[in-house]
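Reply to dn_fold:

You asked what the input looked like. This is it:
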Amino acid sequence: MKRVLGAGIMAGGLAAAAGWVVAAPDPLPASALKAHTANIENGKRLYTAAGCLSCHLPAKDNKQADMSLPSGGRVLKTPAGAFYPPNITPDANTGIGGWSDIQFINAVKRGISPQGRHYLPAFPYTSYARMSDGDVLDIKAYMDTLTPVQAENISPDLPLGLPVETVMRRGLGIWKIAAGFGPVTFVKDASKDDAWNLGAYLVQGPGHCGECHTPRNWAMAMDTSNWLAGGPHPEGDGKVPSLRELKSRGRFKDAKDLATGLEFGETLGYDKMSSGGMGAVQTNMSKLPAEDRAAIATYIMSLE
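and this is what came back:
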């Protein structure tokens, strides 16, 4: 009996050790990056489409903070705990001012910190992974022009605190495998026009619309078989509506109508476009070039 118990303990230990190794982060090396000349204006455009400021706002009670800068700290409540998106201004001590290009790519597209730890998927890197390296580096170039803010980052509020966070972060390596997360490239649909493909790229990648509007499967990964079909709100309160069949459901008349809604929201009577979870999204959409809004609307209105 003791031998059996001992063998079981040993097997369990070996399995745990193997899992710990498998769960290790796998960052890209700097040699993987191609030469790139940054386009700051494109970076600003995609920074806006990605809603970087919306997530990394300062806390509401921080009266001294500049709300136009992503210095972080505003709480994001989820069923798994409370998270505080970090400071992503170019401050060298508390922000991302000291990050190299490859560290930024690994963070945004692979969910791996410069310290070699898995980021919690409250950071939507599973969608940002579809962005091109050039677009991601353009975002970094724009963010490097922002005013640095010294703002200490806040650890998440999780059950049992730091021990759970440590195990959870390493275990995310197994989650990434179970969820099928890995290097992915956006591929244009040759049967569609340029506007549709641009819209698909913006929605699937920087816009990360699927993170809220797509239900989750058993592994808490996006259920792509029900892409943008709506589901439980990721913060655990209420539901997020489907973005499919918007015309047949009478939500919008056509792509032009949806593009107008994205631009003006409730100012022109588009119900629920400028409030709730869509408030910040619609604000960001209103700042994009008209051709981007038209492309996003073209793609979304094609979903049946």
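The longest strand covers residues 76-78.
Hope that clears it up.
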